[in-house]
Amino acid sequence: MTQPDLREIHDFLISLASKAGEMITSAHPSMSNIDTKKNSSDLVTETDQAVEHMVSTSLKSTYPDYEFLGEETYVPGKSHLTPSPTFVVDPIDGTTNFVHGYPYISISLAFVHELVPRVGVVYNPFTSQLYSAIEGHGAYLTSGFGENIERRARLPLRQPAEPLTGLSSALVAVEWGNERQGNNWTVKTKTFEALAGSKEEGGAM
Fold first, then answer.
1. What are phi and psi for residue 134, nearest 5 degrees?
2. What is the predicted pLDDT for the residue at 40?
3. Range with the lowest mean pLDDT among 46-55, 117-126, 151-160, 173-182?
């Protein structure tokens, strides 16, 4: 197998993100036409499934020898990331926001080889913001993606980046995920307490 062409993969993933964005913005989801997976906070819509199908078929057609891992087709205990060239996809990252009409979602695409992320593309079609990166070539934000005037800036946007002196001067965000009980939920809540709690209470702030 020849060495993957990361620039070519990067550009192809951006084209797929653009197509997915059109599918996402033209959809009209509601709480009455969704399904759940693990629980009521783990949602999936027809658009999630349609976008993943479009992406997977396009990738398999262009890169038939590469593996594919998608959120909607992932099978616990059977789907595994291997050293083989692999595309990893979350068709709608933020389905709960999507269903409620909150315009902060994205399609997230990655290319992983030898268990190392090599290319990443994250696109929010509602805000026309595209984040992209190629290993060894930096990460970029393209504002106004797909519009008449695009603005591309290397990340971090604040150059030079200010040194991080501690979590008290950082922006801390926590992805709660879809667990609402069990060990994972306990670990996440304790982690948030450790990160965001005051120093007087044993936290980092």
1. -125, 135
2. 44
3. 173-182
